[in-house]
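Q: Hi! First time asking for a complex rather than a single chain. Here are the components, and I think there are four in total. Is that enough to go on?
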Amino acid sequence: MVDPEDKEILRQLAKLGALSDYIYTSSGEIGRRIGVSQQTASRRILDLVDRGFLTRRMTPRKQFIRLAAPGVEVLRKDLVELKALFATAEHMTIRGRVVAGLGEGQYYISRPGYMKAFNEILGFEPFPGTLNVEVEPLDREKVAELKEREGRLIKEFVSEGRTFGAVKCFRADLGGVECAAIFPLRSHHTNVLEMISPVQLRKKLDLADGADVSVRILLD
Amino acid sequence: MVDPEDKEILRQLAKLGALSDYIYTSSGEIGRRIGVSQQTASRRILDLVDRGFLTRRMTPRKQFIRLAAPGVEVLRKDLVELKALFATAEHMTIRGRVVAGLGEGQYYISRPGYMKAFNEILGFEPFPGTLNVEVEPLDREKVAELKEREGRLIKEFVSEGRTFGAVKCFRADLGGVECAAIFPLRSHHTNVLEMISPVQLRKKLDLADGADVSVRILLD
DNA sequence: ATTACTAGCGTACGAGTAA
DNA sequence: TTTACTCGTACGCTAGTAA
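A: Yes, that's all I need. Here is the structure of the assembled complex.
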């Protein structure tokens, strides 16, 4: 097993160039970089050499040291894992219950300007109506956080002689149905999610007012 | 300071999904994942919460836990650092001394087939002659390693009624002059580097036989 | 200068357990 | 079930030092 302290040494050596060639350094230097004594650094290096993660050549002063193939692999594995983590750090679950909307949503989203934008940005033409989900109090901070994120933006536009405000969208999944949460930039609500979908969510999922739902938001 | 053990906890939590949302887990579970006891995991989590790297909500059983912004930054910094390491893990220095060649190189590299290939692969038309560098014994294993690497390949081709063998090239830098090391795939020498360059290296750098040189090979 | 051994100490671990 | 406290122990640290 490679413990985190071992990885730290491998990383510091890699930063000095020991990934692809021998570097000329000393146990004291390495100790300083990782915040331990010369003695501890020496012991740990020795251990890594014994286990095949480092190769080195000694000289009367200092030493030539580089990562052996298994040492490089340790770091590469970390890189791959972190890449994957950030690549798939993509969803957030928000719970709430279905509530009756004001009927406003229907008017707005069916404006041709929005319809066209939804199609471009989300890849579907929404059913003309929103499903409103009252967010469970504990999850409201998540909604606030969502609003801080990029999301997919529909810019404000002018049509029919008036201005339609910018809207931020997040793709989502509700009970296995493709949908999206939409946030008019002007609003500051954090207790209601407005969901749109190519189908009528309420009917498709047979949702009555008060039904508990769990929305999986994709962060992209 | 975030020590490597702290990072390990953040990573394990991130793998469970705590990068972008709360996860429902227990100190025992986390302890198991990082190979420490429930007590130690509990103490370390508490410490990370105190220092602002984690946020959590307790329940009578288990807890909801996620990385706070500073915790995410710790991992992101690691990712960026590792990416940079592997992106620039690109050179290897090989030392040796100039030796007289057999004059063979000149014949081969000036064949039109090779000339054209060098131009495509290295971006320059080489001076018709090679500079031979006898590799210092300690660096010979590096040469062997180079031959294991991809490099830039010139495939074998037929011309003038005979076959010209495949050659592997590595871009290099010798005394600030752009050049390349070439390895006929058939040869198994590891004690001599054959260098080519758009200019006559020997003349440009005023190198007599026996001159000590240091070749910086780019690994790409 | 270095590396790396030995000794002694301090810290962080896990067992036991309360809430 | 959990979390997280106290406490005794042991592991890994640093200091001192030889080569």
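A: The two ends of chain B are 36 Å apart (CA to CA). Let me know if you'd like any chain examined more closely.
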